[in-house]
Amino acid sequence: MSKSKALYIHVPFCASVCAYCDFYRFRYNSDRADLWLAQVRKDLNNIQDEIATVYIGGGTPSVLSVPQLEGLLECTERFLPVKEFTVECNPESVTAEKAGILRKYDVNRVSLGAQAFDDGMLKKLGRRHTSSDVLKAMKILREAGITNISLDLMYSLPEQSLQDWKDTLKKAVNAEPSHISVYSLTVEEGSRFYAEGKEPLDNETEYEMYDTAIRFLESSGYKQYEISNFAKNGLESEHNKVYWYYGDFIGIGPGASGKENGVRYTVKPDLKGYLEGKREREDIPLSEKDERFEAVMMGLRLNQGIDLNAYAETFKVRLEEYYRDAVTKHISQGNLEMADGFLRATRQGRFILHDVLVDFLE
Question: Domain 5-243 belongs to what topology?
Fold first, then answer.
């Protein structure tokens, strides 16, 4: 057995397409989903690695029919038990029967795409659920025995006010999820928002919304452990931490990404080819310089930052020496800090991390 890896399975089907989404996805079709499942089964049967965490995302995994969902989960049984098994769901497609199937196959965490607790805003986003659907889905999942529930929320949305965002945060906290992720809107080419000329809010408002989220969630018992993620009772996302700690992960399905043995890859987003048994990948071999930088890029997302001794052991260089100019500059500007053997971004630095990282590029 090789070193344990994380496993990501991409479900490229949705009931409808949201206005902000540019992920690789198709409208759900039962026959096509059956063919996709047959190919995924082959890929999963070929995995020889030990698996530490499983994450099924999309798309919308919960759009699959009950037999399809059970068939997909059956394919993962040989990897169990795992430390964490997450499935993404949209609130309107969570049923008692599907929740029971998730629990049957040891899914112990569900990530719900709530996005907002404002029905008018949800409609503008092209979401098919209402605020009450989120609460109903959480109740169904808890009754099935799945209590580790994460909510995804979005801010910097067109026409969204700071008060709208505060209301969404308050309603999310009142629902008592174990984990909350907050993401600022990015309008990507290929999305409906892009075609309509929609844009995120101005930087000052976006910063105020982000700062509001940090302060409110932390005061409500949610500890921020990564730029966008907050957990209650230590229930951090173990799967996503593999990415941030720069571990290896396997990507299954068209459009899925992975990183294994010094190669970052994307399975070609070609559903037709995939259904025909093609497995084309875009491979990006990572040089030692690439890996040193990517480990910094991912590690600075974490509130605890980068363990400098662990970095030196992995890459045979001291980060603070190899990137001396960038580290010195951003410590002096208040964007980074070094303490207790860790290099970490400050609250100010986390908001402008992209700009900070530019100086670590060689």
Answer: pyruvate-formate lyase- activating enzyme (3.80.30)
